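> example.struct
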């Protein structure tokens, strides 16, 4: 979330506010202000009064801009602003209803994409049986059959992508230590198996171990590498580089994934992460327009951020910021 977006939220939404200021000889951050709504939010979450808890409220200073799931079913977005080196401001935004709508949409996508698979498989199966007798169909009908099978194949890929998208964050996997070096290497091997072109040049620096969902992180990097391999100049050897920079103060790692592909206009830098958004026609490059939306969702489920930078014909750079550890409230 950008500082501009944070300011807009603060201006537009009535919410709980806490202010922490560094005080005393120890230099601890003490909560020297909390409005009534913030006191009620934290009191309801812990089952204790503000008076009983106020002395321990240096804890939220460790929070970033993340989502907190409280036992009472409430979900809050934490917006953290650093006023100066001695003062922090935290804003609690109630997004419970927004989160419920998001879950309903994801449930719909899961049901729709899952239940449509069976009739589609039958169409493909019958089409393939007809194709065995293609010689007797005539030139025109054979062309129609080829187009039909091509369309059903694309639809099958799209439904598979939607199913994968809807399953992210649905549970079943626990937070664990993940060696990003191993995950990135495995993701590249899986991505490169689908391309029988000139072997890509792949370079990866030293990457840290973080807390996350291994399968989701594997999927994240696989999608990014598939994107780099797919949108590539003809007759040019693909080059992909992965480096990282750890911020121990902020407890995050910024991963930089660069390629020498066809690139895209900077005006598309945010829209490429939208579901079904495509910049190129199917005749140029295959794809469903789901891969980068999956990446964004995985990163956000890890309380992280993903950005893209590019220019037409100049390759692309993706910056993925992830926390080194996950707060208990996000588990």
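> example.seq
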């Amino acid at each position: 979330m950008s500082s501009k977006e944070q300011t807009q939220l603060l201006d537009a939404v009535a919410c709980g506010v806490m202010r922490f200021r560094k005080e005393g000889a120890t230099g601890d951050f003490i909560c020297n202000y909390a409005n009534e709504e913030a006191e009620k939010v934290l009191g309801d979450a812990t089952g204790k009064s503000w008076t009983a808890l106020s002395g321990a409220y240096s804890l939220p200073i460790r929070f970033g801009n993340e989502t907190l799931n409280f036992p009472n079913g409430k979900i809050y977005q934490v917006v953290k602003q650093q006023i100066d080196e001695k003062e922090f401001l935290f804003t609690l935004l109630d997004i419970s209803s927004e989160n419920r709508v998001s879950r309903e949409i994801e449930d719909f996508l899961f049901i729709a994409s899952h239940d449509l698979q069976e009739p589609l498989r039958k169409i493909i199966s019958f089409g393939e049986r007809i194709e065995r007798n293609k010689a007797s169909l005539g030139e025109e009908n054979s062309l129609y059959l080829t187009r039909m099978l091509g369309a059903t194949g694309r639809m099958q890929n799209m439904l598979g992508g939607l199913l994968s998208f809807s399953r992210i964050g649905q549970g079943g996997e626990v937070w664990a230590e993940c060696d990003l070096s191993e995950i990135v290497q495995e993701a590249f091997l899986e991505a490169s198996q689908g391309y029988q072109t000139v072997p890509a040049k792949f370079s990866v620096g030293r990457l840290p171990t973080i807390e996350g969902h291994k399968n989701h992180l594997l999927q994240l990097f696989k999608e990014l590498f598939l994107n780099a391999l797919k949108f590539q100049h003809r007759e040019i050897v693909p080059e992909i580089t992965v480096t990282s920079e750890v911020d121990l103060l902020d407890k995050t790692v910024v991963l930089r994934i660069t390629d020498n592909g066809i690139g895209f206009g900077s005006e598309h830098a945010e829209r490429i992460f939208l579901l079904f958004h495509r910049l190129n026609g199917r005749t140029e490059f295959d794809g469903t327009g789901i891969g980068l939306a999956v990446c964004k969702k995985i990163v956000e489920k890890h309380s992280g951020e993903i950005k893209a930078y590019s220019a037409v014909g100049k390759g692309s750079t993706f910056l993925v910021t992830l926390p080194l550890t996950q707060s208990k409230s996000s588990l």
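> remarks
The chain is about 40% helix and 25% strand.
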